[in-house]
Design goal:
By secondary structure, the chain is α/β, with parallel strands linked by helices. The protein has 14 helices and twelve strands. The chain binds beta-D-glucopyranose (BGC).
């Protein structure tokens, strides 16, 4: 199946540089860069009650309790975060998607949202009514099919690059969202900003998070809110993250290790589009060619991979140390940790992809981290639209090990 998202559109944006490899930091060009069970719908009230705190003694118990709704999720990639008038393929979700997601065994959906593309000028930054309605339709279906939902602010590049100049816009987005959804069940959660990096460093973001949470809390005291470290939400960034003293705040991280495998051939990374044939778990039997035009960090990753092929040595997947770092930080700081994005591009071979998603989810579960795969039916898809079925081996790898 060809990639459903329009990467040529993605290429044209080329606005940000992404750094998210394990252990070291590498520059990567990125343009704009994801039967109702038993046929029974229990009442919305029962569902909501499950998300309420249960009186555990643990510090930040409400956040831990609410995170029980966010264990196994799927991202609606390349949908509501896409800027108007751009075509990243039709990834719009309809009732069918919710029903199917529930049937597959997921318990929640993360919906990346580009609110900043659909609002007016300051000081109000009023969000368009038609856009609110589109989001609301998604939340209604999620409630109907008993799926929890995490919504965020995604690809707000202007903010990430100039956080002080665009700070009020981010705050106003959250105030309007908090107002609009304050009566929704607590199975709806908020994530303040996707993947801060560069100028949106830990120091800046700690202050931004504290203010955003204060402003949301003035409207909605009980909702679960997630915040993530800088460096693209990498677990490495956790060392600098300060979590406000609020018992309903959880921490989200993203992990695309091993990047050489997960982003092979990705056109929007600039550096990876010539890399193909990386298998998981590594190494495979075939050494990979090293194109002279490859940046040195990619070439050195390939050399390492080839060395392992030559020695016939199994490689520990890069996500293991990353997830352990995150889990340890969570224990030390008494915060639940959620892996809001992980995944492998559909250009990798099917068997490796299924191996990867299965191993990653298993590791996360062993470390008691919730996970949310990237993505539902775009370029890293779980659902194979041509076959109208899960991509080969994926369901078994995630839900039937
Ligand atoms: C971005 C997507 C991208 C994915 C994998 C996400 O954070 O929003 O555009 O496809 O990461 O690189």
């Amino acid at each position: 199946m060809s990639l459903p998202d329009s990467n040529s559109t993605l290429d044209s944006l080329q606005t940000t540089s992404r750094r998210r490899l394990s252990g070291a930091t590498f520059p990567v060009l990125k343009s704009a860069v994801v039967a109702i069970v038993c046929g029974i719908i229990i009442s919305a009230q029962t569902f909501v009650a499950e998300a309420q705190e249960t009186g555990s003694d643990a510090k930040n118990a409400p956040a831990f309790e609410m995170m029980k709704q966010f264990r196994k999720g799927v991202n609606f990639g390349n949908f509501l975060e896409v800027p108007p008038n751009q075509n990243w393929g039709d990834n719009s979700a309809k009732e069918w998607d919710f029903k199917t997601i529930k049937n597959e065994g997921f318990d929640h959906i993360r919906i990346p949202i580009g609110w900043h593309h659909y609002n007016g000028a300051g000081p109000e930054f009023e969000i368009q009514e038609t856009f609110f309605k589109r989001v609301e339709q998604q939340l209604d279906w999620a409630e109907e099919y008993e799926l929890a939902v995490l919504i965020n602010v995604h690809h707000f590049n202007e903010f990430v690059e100039s956080p002080q100049e665009n700070r009020e816009e981010l705050m106003r987005i959250w105030e309007q969202v908090a107002e609009r959804f304050s009566d929704r069940p607590l199975t709806l959660a908020y994530e303040i900003l996707n993947e801060p990096h560069g100028a949106s460093n830990a120091e800046v973001m700690n202050d931004v998070y504290a203010e955003a949470i204060r402003r949301i809390r003035a409207i909605d005291e009980k909702r679960l809110i997630m915040i993530g470290p800088d460096e693209w939400n990498s677990p490495r960034g956790l060392a600098g993250l300060k979590v406000p003293d609020d018992p309903r705040v959880a921490v989200t991280v993203h992990c695309y290790d091993p990047f050489l495998f997960t982003h092979q051939g990705a056109s929007w990374t600039g550096d990876m589009d010539k890399v193909r044939g990386v298998v998981f778990p590594g190494p495979g039997k075939k050494e990979l060619p090293i194109d002279e035009a490859l940046p040195s960090w990619v070439a050195s990753q390939i050399r390492e991979y080839n060395q392992a092929v030559e020695n016939g040595e199994a490689q520990e997947p890069g996500f293991v140390p990353s997830l352990k770092t995150a889990a340890e930080w969570g224990k030390k700081n008494s915060r639940p940790i959620y892996v809001g994005e992980f995944g492998a591009i559909a250009l990798a071979d099917k068997e490796s992809r299924a191996n990867f998603y299965g191993e990653f989810a298993k590791t996360a579960e062993e470390l008691e981290l919730g996970w949310c795969l990237w993505d539902w039916k775009a370029g890293f898809y779980y659902w194979d639209r041509e076959k109208d079925a899960p991509a080969e081996g994926m369901h078994e790898a995630l839900f039937d090990r």
